[in-house]
Predict the 3D structure of the following.
Amino acid sequence: MSTELPLSPRILAINESATLKVDAKAKALKASGRPVISYGAGEPDFSTPANIVDAARRALDDPGNFRYTPAAGLPDLRRAVVAKTQRDSGLTVDPAQVVITNGGKQAVYEAFAALVGEGDEVILPAPYWTTYPEAIRLAGGTPVEVFAGADQGYRVTVDQLEAARTERTRLVLFVSPSNPTGAVYTREQTEAIARWAVEHDIWILADEIYQNLTYDGVTATSIASVIPEAADNTVLVNGVAKTYAMTGWRVGWLVGPQRVAKAVSNLQSHLTSNVSNVSQRAAVEALTGPQDAVAEMRAAFDRRRRLIVDELSKIDGFVVPVPEGAFYAYPDVTGVLGREWHGVTPTTTLELADLLLDQTDVAVVPGEAFGRSGYLRLSYALDDESLLEGVHRLQRFFSVD
Ligand code: PMP
C-alpha cells in the first residue's frame, strides 16, 4: 500500500515561481541580519496614492459594499475601465466586454482558460513573464517559445512567429512593455504582428499592464486598435497594480469580445466571484481621479532607469539595452559567464545569481526564470540610494578578475 496518495498531474507539472523564490531567499537572508539589496520584486516601492486609499476608507462606510456583486465586477468600475481602454488603448468597448479580476494574474489565467483548448499551441515570445507557460499548460495548451535576444531589442519578428506557426497555433501572446525586458514594440512592429495574427485566425492575448510606464516619449501602441480587424481577435489584460502602486489590492481586468467576457465571467462566477468591493471602489478612484501621482512615480522610475542602465553598462561583459518601459533592466551577461570570479566560475545565470547573493548580498533574478540563461533581471522599483549601492557592489565584484 502506498503511503502517499497522488496529486493531480496538472498541479504537479507547475513550477514554483522563480521570481518569488529569489525574493523569499533575499528576505530570509535580510531577516538573518545580512544587508541584502533586492532587485527581485516586480512591484513599485511607493505607497498607494492617498486619494485612492481614501476612496477605500469611504467604501467601508457603505454597507452596499458588504455584499456580493456581479461576478464580472461593479458597474462603476467596468465603466471606468471602458473609459481607460478608450484613453490608453484607443479602443471603444462596451461594459459587457469587461471582466474585473483578482489582479492581472487572474485575467491571464482566465483568458487562457477561455481561449485555449487541449493540445492547442500558444506562441510565447521569450524572454517571458514566468506565469505565462504555467497558465498555458494549466489550460491544456502547449507553449511554443520564440526567442528574441538583446541583439534584436528583445522583440520578436513576424518571420520568427511565422516559422513557429502550425495548424495547431491558437494564440499568440503580446506583451509591450515587457516583463522582464522592458522592451516596447514600435507601432509598425505591432501592426505587422496584428496583421499576421488576423490573417491566420490566431487569437492575440495582449498584456498591457505596463502600458502607462513608458519613457523617452515612447508610447505603447495597443495591438487591439492598430488595425480595425484586430479587436475581434484580441483580449486585453490590464490592472492597477503597477501604474498606481496597488499590487496588494488585487484588481485587474480583461477586455475582449463580448462572448469571451461572458465565458470568463461564467468561469469566475464559479472560481472567485467578484473582487473585493473595497478594492474595486479604490480602483474606480485610481482610474477616474487625479493622475498626478502616476506622473510623479513614472518620473522617479525614469530617473532610476537611466541610473541603473548607466551603472550596469560600466561592467565589462554586461550588454544593457535601454528599456523603454516597465521597471526592469535586463542585461545580457553572457560575457561574464565561464570566467572565474572570486574563486568560483559560474556557467549559468542561475549559478551567477546565487554567487552574487552569497558574496555581495545583492539579489537579482536569473534569466532561467524567463526562459533562457545568460541574462539577469533587475527591478529598479527601489529607492535611489539602495539602487546605487547595489550596482556599486556589482561593479566592485566584477572589477577583480
Ligand atoms: N502581467 C505582467 C507582465 C506582470 O509582470 C504582472 C505582475 N508581475 C502581472 C501581469 C500581474 O499583476 P497583478 O496580478 O498584480 O495585477
Observations:
- Residues 42, 103-105, 108, 129, 175, 179, 207, 209, 239, 241, 247, 252 surround 4'-deoxy-4'-aminopyridoxal-5'-phosphate (CB under 6 Å).
